[in-house]
Hints:
Keywords: Electron transport, Membrane, Mitochondrion, Mitochondrion inner membrane, Respiratory chain, Transmembrane, Transmembrane helix, Transport. The protein is mainly α.
Amino acid sequence: MHLNNIFSLDNRTCTDVIYGGYLLSYSRDISDALNDQIWEQSRCSSCINITFHFPDKPTYKMLDQTQIWEDKYLNFQQCVDNVTAYDEWAFRNGTTICQTCKDPLENLFNYFWKIYIDPDTDFCVDVETIMNDTMHLWNDVWKCADTKDRKKDRPLMIITLIVLIIFTLLFYSASYIQGGGRQRNFILYSGMPVVEERARLLSTSASGSDLAVVNFQRSNRIRAMSHKEEPLNPDEDQLTQYRERCAGHVEKLKEILDECNDRVNSRTETEETCHQEMMDYIHELDHCVGDAQSVQGPEITITQIFDFAFADLVGSL
């Protein structure tokens, strides 16, 4: 509070003067920090070495690799100056420069590239910038890029294309051989005629007469295989007769399954039709088991009845 009431010659309070001097003391630290950061990120120590001699002036010395690069660059620059000294059009056209200064540029670039790819040595940003500008002039402005280098990409592209074609042919050939040599046909289902059995099963507008015909055909097929047409022999063991009869039904079920597979593969009937037909026959097998239980009592199980039947079926498979 006491310093706020005391003013300096420029009509500022002592508090402002002290605070301004406090901020000014940081300006040197900030400047040194920025300079050090720029110096490190620019890799200036890779090109030049500075030796300080307080209070005398510091001495500057370029590193050997930088000095060699500078000599090669000045040699290339002198070549360009000699070509364009008396012909300003030569600098824009570049044809004479490309023919005359090709060797100095290759010498310069080879040395720079050898240092650039070496992990133990490095160049500063100034050298890299000068080289980028030089190559831009040579390739883009003077159009001196070697046509041989451009032609080298063409065989590589052709070889890559041939390899891709070979792998594609091998892939499809292996798929064809693995598929048994069958030719794959692409089917446009929207252009195929509607299968009648499938239409009857899926369409809600199917007539009752059509459904009656299908059910009648299926009932005749199942009735022909039904065990109820022949009565059991009362002189023989009824359980054995039921086992043999159910074994016959299992064989018939296997025949229906094989027949349905053939029909589905040949597209004469849909999978839904065969599935429904097999379900109906399984119901007939259920009736066979129910009749056996009614004769021998509820203690007989389905497993006991089908032991003999499925043993023969598994043996045939």
